[in-house]
């Protein structure tokens, strides 16, 4: 590991992005608002927010995003191109990221140039908000994530969260699309299945490793704690390839109350 936070330093979980997104932009994702007991079902992972809310606009919540919904085969879409179309049709795509998504549609994928551009703009945006340039970590699969920031006063933290929401959420669809492209080429709608498939392809777990094995490991982390459970997971939680697989799905966890940290600090794996 060696990368865990010390006193005064907080890892930045992608959880915050999901929480802020649910609160500020993705109010239509009603299924993301409730508490979680630390487990995730196939229904919640695939974006099943309840049949009464699917595909309907709510005057209180706004339009419903369907980006997490599974098709009849348990996939987000039939192809990456089809998924790009779905992303472009999402009512919460920002004006900033739309040109990048339209370029991705023309090219058939999110290029490294686009991905590096939005993250470069993120760093500039945070600096423009008065914060030091954030440190970005890049995983073997190309995914990027924020490494850490120093914890300040409540007022400073609120300022940081506001800046983060402004600077990150404007390209969250590009981040999510790139994550599926790099970490979930089979476009599994179930987040656990996507992470496990990625880990198998990266060679960090054997082909026989299953979603049940993964979830059993998360349960051990919850019940026994990190120190006692880390050697029973069947994989190295701190392996950069594992963290890259989880980072690729970080924006799609079922509920924003589920802990997430690509750094391995949180015991819930995505």
From TrEMBL:
Feature: compositional bias, Polar residues: 255-270
Leader sequence segment: 1-33
Record keywords: Signal
Region Disordered, annotated ranges: 37-71, 248-270
PROSITE patterns noted in UniProt: PROKAR_LIPOPROTEIN
Composition bias type Low complexity, residue spans: 42-58
Keyword Signal part of the UniProt annotation: yes
Name used for this protein in its record: Lipoprotein
Organism: Bifidobacterium callitrichos DSM 23973
Lineage, opening ranks: Bacteria, Bacillati, Actinomycetota, Actinomycetes, Bifidobacteriales
